[in-house]
Specification:
The complex is a heterodimer of chains A (112) and B (114). Helices cover 0% and strands 50% of the residues of chain A. Chain A has 112 residues and is mostly beta strands. Chain A has no helices and 12 strands. Chain A is globular and about 40 Å long. In chain A, strands 2, 5, 6, 10, 11 and 12 form a 6-stranded mixed β-sheet that branches. In chain A, strands 3-9-8-7 form a 4-stranded antiparallel β-sheet, with no helix packed on it. With 114 residues, chain B is mostly beta strands. Helices cover 0% and strands 55% of the residues of chain B. In chain B, the strands form 2 sheets. In chain B, strands 2, 4, 5, 6, 9, 10 and 11 form a 7-stranded mixed β-sheet that branches. In chain B, strands 1-3-8-7 form a 4-stranded antiparallel β-sheet, with no helix packed on it. In chain B, a hairpin with a 2-residue loop joins strand 5 (43-50) and strand 6 (53-57). Chain B is globular. Classes of the chains: A mainly beta (112), B mainly beta (114). The A-B interface holds A 32, 34, 36, 42-46, 49, 51, 88, 90, 94, 96-102, 104-105, 107 and B 4, 35, 40-45, 48, 50, 55-56, 90, 92, 97-100, 102-108.
Chain lengths: 112, 114
């Protein structure tokens, strides 16, 4: 069974710092990759996704993610975070079946 | 307009009771899902319906029974509630089966079993 690992459970950083959240998956075939975000008191919403093509994908709110096939990774980055980026971030993988498998999530706290 | 809505938002009940959670989407999607988020925030798929047909039924106790009266609704009924059922339950929908389809989530229902 495929699994999704997010290495950082809780990240605390100051405004303007750079953010990188790790995500690794275990499935060896073709995958579809997603990052979802849940702001406090809000729904989970899609941040960005990767299916094929350029492995560096850009999402909303200045986020980007890089797919490295050899490392089975899809790390999320933002060069300069804002207080409003405080949220839960979830990596998710679909291995061309009917399921979306989520990582355990990373809580990001940005201090003003 | 709320795209995916769930009722109730909070549900507190005693062990052994039977309860239902309702989900509705107004996005015209053909696929709906139920997820369980445990205390460690881990989101796990429970069920998925496509055009009212059950597609995914993960290893979930048969006390949990989903029902999809139409493509816009997917309800979750839970019999004989147990302490371990306490969690946040999220409904989601997408156009098409998981794959590359973006899933739209509801606000969640926080179930507390006492």
């Amino acid at each position: 069974a495929q699994s999704v690992s997010q290495h950082n459970h809780h990240v605390i950083l100051s405004e303007a710092a750079s953010l990188e959240l790790g995500c690794n998956y275990s499935y060896g075939g073709t995958v579809n990759l997603f990052w979802y975000v849940q702001y406090p008191g809000q729904h989970l919403q899609l941040l960005l996704k990767y299916f094929s093509g350029d492995p560096l994908v850009k999402g909303i709110k200045g986020f980007e993610a890089e797919f490295i096939k050899s490392k089975f990774s899809f790390n999320l980055r933002k060069p300069s975070v804002q207080w409003s980026d405080t949220a839960e971030y979830f990596c998710a993988v679909n291995a061309n079946d009917y399921k979306l498998s989520f990582g355990a999530g990373t809580t990001v706290t940005v201090r003003a | 307009d709320t795209a995916v809505s769930q009722t109730p938002k909070y549900l507190v009940t005693q062990m052994g009771n039977d309860k239902s959670i309702k989900c509705e989407q107004n996005l015209g999607h053909d696929t709906m899902y139920w997820y369980k988020q445990d205390s460690k925030k881990f989101l796990k798929i429970m069920f998925s319906y496509n055009n009212k047909e059950l597609i995914i039924n993960e290893t979930v106790p048969n006390r949990f029974s989903p029902k999809s009266p139409d493509k816009a609704h997917l309800n979750l009924h839970i019999n004989s509630l147990e302490l371990g059922d306490s969690a946040v339950y999220f409904c989601a929908s997408s156009q098409g089966l998981a794959g590359r389809a973006e899933q739209f989530f509801g606000p969640g229902t926080r179930l507390t079993v006492l």
